[in-house]
């Protein structure tokens, strides 16, 4: 059994899609009895991540697969890593590097689990995908 986790969900959102995913992840975590704090990059974001059991990072993909500058600035200013890091991203499959920024962030943080990739806005079956991914995060954490 997993004890109550303290989770930070830190995300960058341009059109609101990534924010919607972050909110759905937080809702599922809270439904499972965990604490989930949402932090939007560009506002006040914690620089020390070690006080969290889990950090979930979310980003949109900019241009042709790039990490958005605002997310890159966050990465550069983050002084410490959390025990467990997971990554999600939003993107558009019409571009060649679908959710490429999320893949890069996953690699930079040596993140756990698979990257959750959401096509634009999280609607219909994608909401179930988010729920299942979040439950997978909790399973991975419970295994440690």
TrEMBL record:
The keyword Transport applies. The keyword Cell wall biogenesis/degradation does not apply. Its cofactor is FMN. Residues 7-138 form the Flavodoxin-like domain. It comes from the Bacteria. Keywords: Electron transport, Flavoprotein, FMN, Transport. Gene3D superfamilies: 3.40.50.360. Low-potential electron donor to a number of redox enzymes. Belongs to the flavodoxin family. This is Ribonucleotide reductase-associated flavodoxin. It comes from Peribacillus huizhouensis.
């Amino acid at each position: 059994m997993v004890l109550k986790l303290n989770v930070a969900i830190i995300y960058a959102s341009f059109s609101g899609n990534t924010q919607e995913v972050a909110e759905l992840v937080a809702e599922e975590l809270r439904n499972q009895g965990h604490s989930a704090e949402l932090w939007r990059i560009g506002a006040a974001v914690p620089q020390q991540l070690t006080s969290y059991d889990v950090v979930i990072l979310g980003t949109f993909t900019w241009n042709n697969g790039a990490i958005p500058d605002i997310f890159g600035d966050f990465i550069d200013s983050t002084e410490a890593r959390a025990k467990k890091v997971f990554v999600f991203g939003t993107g558009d499959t019409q571009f060649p590097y679908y959710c490429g920024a999320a893949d890069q962030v996953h690699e930079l943080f040596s993140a756990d689990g698979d990257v959750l990739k959401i096509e634009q806005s999280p609607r219909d079956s994608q909401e179930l995908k988010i729920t299942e991914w979040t439950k997978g995060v909790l399973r991975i954490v419970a295994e440690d």
